[in-house]
């Protein structure tokens, strides 16, 4: 009941006439971004997160038109710099060799899968090299993004490189392996190696053998252009090639490590010449493992727990110019403490060139360490002796664009960027 002395409030006729009616719907959607702004946003999608670019391209026709534009891919690669790591190859030995691919990006290459009786040898410039003795060819080169595959039969003149007399033929036959070091590299003149899909390539073999009382190093190179092997280059040396070690490529030179030696064998694929350079070991370092290439220099690593030591060495046309950089990384905060306290070895087993990621083998599993950020993650629970990162640009996959709600679910075909 209203008090008797209170006058009822009256609505103002002005407010009643001028006040807008309450909205019947939700807030208006924000205005669309201009196409040039949206293109700049798409160009900055992280290269190791191709699934996001696929989802954006499937969202609407205008965004897919931007990603599909012929000028988008070169601009995306140029802004992204080095190709991202899509995953890595490694071998598993059970009753026979099995080559595995473990993805590290959001959308793995469609052509990457486990391969029985295949032995992963090398990965570089968007290509992967395998030894496949039970197929129609000795070697197979694969582009894991496009699915292209090239089979290569070894010339009989290469047999002394592939199978050393120091190992019995029966052991090699049973293990489906070779005793040489094999490398694959892009052979396109002036290539920046940001997008090597479908281009010419080389496969270089560097090995060792014994002729009488002489210890010999051998090398030969295969060209995808001529589809022929070069003549075998040989030189008398006292250096045992590390057939399972990582190689490095600088220009026309392939660098191959030696076993228990402070030497690296250099094979010039253009001039077909072999030479040797000495690695300047320091007294406290019992060994150095060649990891690959960093900023145009050879990268070596060794582990003296609890530290990882990295050296970069300039390698010129006439050999080594000495150390250019030395870094020490404390592993105490990057690896589990029981691993560092264990007597078993901790070693560097792989390096992703261009993105600064190094892989560490421990008894607790495989860890990857980002050298710039210092971030560490376990990527595999087993013991892996050699990691071969696969580097390439990749957008994932999508099929014909349908309605927007259907296109986001479409996964078919393959597209490289």
Automatic annotation (TrEMBL):
Gene3D superfamilies, per database record: 1.20.1280.50
SUPFAM superfamilies: F-box domain
Region (Disordered): 1-34
Annotated ranges, domain F-box: 32-71
Pro residues biased stretches: 19-32
InterPro entries: F-box-like_dom_sf, F-box_dom
Pfam families: F-box-like
Name of this protein: Predicted protein
Organism expressing this protein natively: Hordeum vulgare subsp. vulgare
Lineage of the organism: Eukaryota, Viridiplantae, Streptophyta, Embryophyta, Tracheophyta
Gene: LOC123449550
